[in-house]
Specification:
By secondary structure, this protein is α+β, with helices and mostly antiparallel strands. Helices cover about 30% and strands about 25% of the residues.
């Protein structure tokens, strides 16, 4: 007897997180193999710790010569540079020296001194990255610069999985790349998917917000994701290119919703850094520049939840004591 049961959803640790994909009844081993082979290829290009990766070679030699990179790196760097320009440098993949200094997501985190930050600050500047898209080469203006694509590569990977789903005419799928959620297709008998947004004060408990969405990407960045504590001081992983330190503002998390997961990924970081008010005013500009729709949710430490103007999805707050605000911008 031949079993008609679809293979179980698959997960694997890649891109610095656990990558989970569920193709439901359309799942075939060949499809999962193709998806995870694509994820591994992207990981091999963007993983700075692998000695053969594009990123490792770029960070090692980019200050002294042109370094050849893949089409994937070119695409992601082109998008990164454009987001950097529009956000005034709030999103900046050249933040690698600060990431290496603080070592937040490692077994040996470090509280950087102002002297240490000041010494390497000139190395963090997206305008010092020179990309030749035609030749597929990148060079840095200064030795010691290094890139970190942690704020955009997972979104790019999610978009690439969606392309595979489209190619094989998958009816529905859930893609979860460490908090970068992409719900694809339509649920049985229901057009919309329910996606939860974590409570920053209790991320392992029931979600704080439930939103109902069509096929789309939901990406969240928050202070609860990767961090370390020294005494009563909380140091999270969202570093500002302007100060060289973890961002200190009123926000606990930022969620961006868009069909373009790569841009949503980058914008969660940028919006967290520039803050709620400036981000809300910037959304129309982003939509025009990228010809894409973006919606956002800002969760603040004072228990205020702000939805961007004309937020198109139904939502509900699942805890008492939180105030809901709709942005006028």
């Amino acid at each position: 007897m031949v079993s008609c049961t679809a293979p179980a959803p698959r997960y694997e640790k890649l891109l610095g997180t656990v990558c989970f994909v569920n193709l439901f009844e359309d799942g075939k081993e060949d499809y999962y193999d193709e998806i995870f082979a694509r994820l591994k290829a992207i990981d091999n290009e963007f993983n700075f710790s692998k000695g053969f990766s594009d990123l490792y070679r770029l960070n090692t030699f980019g200050g002294s010569k042109d370094v050849g990179v893949s089409e994937d790196v070119v695409k992601v760097l082109e998008a990164s540079q454009k987001v950097s320009e529009i956000t005034g440098g709030a999103f900046d993949v050249s933040i690698g020296p600060f990431v290496n200094l603080w070592r937040v997501n490692t077994d040996y985190p470090h509280v950087a001194s102002q002297e240490e930050i000041d010494e390497i600050h000139p190395l963090v500047d997206y305008r010092k990255i020179f990309l030749n898209s035609q030749e597929h080469t990148v060079r840095f203006a200064e030795t010691g610069m290094s890139l970190n694509f942690g704020g955009i590569a997972k979104g790019y990977a999610a978009d690439e999985i969606v392309k595979i789903c489209e190619k094989h005419k998958i009816s529905k799928a859930v893609i979860d790349l460490g908090g970068n959620i992409y719900v694809y297709g339509k649920k049985a008998k229901k057009e919309l998917w329910n996606v939860g947004i974590k409570n920053p004060e209790s991320p392992d408990s029931m979600p704080l917000i439930k939103i109902s969405v069509p096929q789309i990407s939901v990406v969240t960045s928050g202070v609860y994701e990767r961090y370390f504590d020294v005494g009563k001081k909380h140091y999270h992983h969202i570093l500002s290119p302007f100060t060289g330190a973890p961002v200190e503002n009123d926000l606990s998390s930022v969620t961006v919703i868009s069909e373009n997961s790569m841009l949503a990924d980058a914008l969660t970081t940028a919006f967290f850094i520039i803050g709620k008010e400036e981000s809300l005013r910037l959304i129309p500009t982003m939509q025009k520049e990228f010809n894409a729709e973006f919606s956002a949710i800002f969760i603040e430490k004072n228990h205020t939840i702000t939805f961007s103007k004309d937020f198109p999805y139904s939502s509900s707050i699942l805890y008492e004591g939180w105030d809901q605000v709709v942005s006028p911008y």
